[in-house]
Specification:
The protein has 249 residues and is an alpha+beta fold. The chain contains 9 helices and 8 strands. The protein folds into 2 domains: 183 residues, YebC, transcriptional regulation domain (Alpha-Beta Plaits, 2-Layer Sandwich); 60 residues, Integrase, N-terminal zinc-binding domain (Arc Repressor Mutant, subunit A, Orthogonal Bundle), CATH 1.10.10. α2 packs antiparallel against α3 and α2 crosses α4. The chain is globular and about 45 Å long.
């Protein structure tokens, strides 16, 4: 299993254990609002909104929540969110990249700078670490006995998938950014609704740390993820077997 799949599996288990659903819903709602505000409230003509709604359904968000978010976006009192990114080095020199949606950029900058300082990191300039990450399409599908893995893999490869990984609970499909739409359309044609589908920043090289140092990095990452202004946090810490075992204890 790749490092990305290991992270996803552990985060899924952890999310269920500590009931972070509220945080997840908050982030998805913000994505729905900005998508609807930019491209309109009709998912049939707004691909970004369609994807956000798909992810909301994958997270089991109630339909009413989704509809309220869309109405809020297209209404006269709609909140305006700014998209921004922050890059820097966390503890032990681990590269960290954060994507944000905020209605107050000064607040977000102060909060992120404070987190970097608290955990012994160093906030860098925009673009300084982007070369360490490749944007790829990641689709997560919940395993079920009706799926033919061999047929699905062939269909995904034809659509442009670069990687097809299977574990006990999920299937993870990875593709180039340019093939995201092709893979998404093919899954729709096959009647498969992913639990999650989005463009993510995947490190092109990872850094291995001992378990204790790695745990300090993950505390920093969790502190960033708990910030309501931060949508996604990426890093290049390598998920070793020892670290995976320690996190599952």
């Amino acid at each position: 299993m790749s490092g990305h799949s290991k992270w996803s599996t552990i985060k899924r288990k952890k999310g269920a254990a500590d009931a972070r659903r509220g945080k997840i819903f908050t982030k998805i709602i913000k994505e729905i609002i900005i998508a609807a505000k930019e491209g309109g409230g009709d998912p049939d003509t707004n691909s970004r909104l369609r994807l956000a709604i798909q992810n909301a359904k994958g997270a089991n968000m109630p339909k009413d929540n989704i509809e309220r978010a869309i109405k809020k976006a297209v209404g006269s009192d709609a909140v305006s969110y700014i998209e921004s990114t922050f890059e820097g080095y966390g503890p032990s020199g681990i590269a960290v990249f954060a994507e944000c949606l905020t209605d107050n950029n000064n607040r977000t900058v102060a909060s992120i700078r404070s987190a970097f300082n608290k955990y012994g990191g160093n906030l860098g300039t925009k673009g300084s670490l982007s070369y360490l990450f490749d944007r790829k399409g990641i689709f997560t599908i919940i395993m079920n006995e009706d799926l033919s893995l061999e047929e699905l893999e062939l269909e995904m490869i034809d659509a442009g998938a670069q990687d097809f990984e299977v574990d006990e609970e999920t299937i993870t499909i990875t593709c180039a950014k340019e093939d995201f739409g092709n893979v998404s359309r093919k899954l729709t044609e096959l009647g498969i609704e992913p639990e999650e589908s989005r463009l993510k920043r995947i490190p092109n090289d990872t850094k291995k740390l001992d378990v204790e140092s790695a745990k300090k990095v993950l505390k920093f990452v969790e502190a960033l993820e708990d910030d309501d202004d931060i949508q996604n946090v990426y890093h290049n810490l390598e998920m070793t077997d020892e670290l995976a075992a320690a996190l599952e204890e």
